[in-house]
Amino acid sequence: MNDDRYVEYGAATGILFVVLSIVGFGIVIPTPPDLNAPAQDWSSYFLSHHDAVRAGIVVLAVAMFAFIWFLGTLTSVLRIATGTPRLPSIAFAGGILGAASLMVGLGAEAVAAYRPQGVDPLITRALNDLFVLVGVAAIPAFAALFAATAVVILRTGAFPAWLGWLLAVAAAVQPLTFGALFTKSGAFAGDGALGLFVPVIVSLVAIFALSALLTAWARDATREGNPTLTDRIRGAVTGAATGAAAGARRPPTETTRR
């Protein structure tokens, strides 16, 4: 990674993923009916907006490419921080499995929008249900990604502690999506505040913060006289370990003795 002059761009792909995800879901794809809406409403939605849905899927597919690229950069950085492959491998596997689950959902949505004329409305709605419910299958994957990354950050001190806690929160809120299995309306539904928006927003914020920090550090490393990104991370880990060791050796104060 020391010799990779383009690590800054690799780190920035996380930001690109977040931006494209917001554009794809929030701007290009029109607002869909409620999950518990009649099947005919879903058929009419895809008949009226199939071109916009297809365009949104293209944007989201590019976003997934950026996410996979970012995972490669993140895994390399985590290995530098830990010196061992266990936690970075867990993070990478979680990210890949999560991305694969979401791409299955995108495929289902693409089928629904591909030939909406003459298709049974119940089938159209079922395809959209698949698009929504693959988020449930992705829960353990993204929880593993965020949890493993958080453990590396909090254990090594290679990055600011607030980032580690933000990632820990992102891991903790993933199970909220399980609510989509048990209800079609309300806060825990697949289109509800807790079943969808909280896990998605917290995840995007965490990825954006992590990507922005790595991009800024990589940019600083390209300037003459600054340490490389690898040296900066190893220095932070060494400094954190030295500080912890010094604290452990410090003799008790008079207040502590009392």
Topology of this structure?
Elements: H1 7-28, H2 39-82, H3 86-114, H4 121-137, H5 139-156, H6 161-173, H7 193-221, H8 229-249, H9 254-257
Helix pairs in contact: 1-2, 1-7, 2-3, 2-4, 2-8, 3-4, 3-5, 5-6, 6-7
Describe the structure in your own words:
- By secondary structure, the chain is mainly alpha-helical.
- 76% of the residues lie in helices and 0% in strands.
- The protein starts with 6 loop residues before the first helix and ends with a helix.
What order do the helices and strands follow? Answer: HHHHHHHHH
Helix segment count? 9
Count of β-strands = 0
For the record, give the distance between the C-alpha atoms at the N and C termini, rounded to a whole number.
51 Å
Q: Largest sheet, described in full?
A: none
The Cα radius of gyration reads 22 Å
Structural class: mainly alpha
How would you sum up this structure in a few lines?
With 258 residues, the chain is mainly α. It is 76% helix and 0% strand.
Can you give keywords for this protein?
258 residues; mainly alpha; elongated
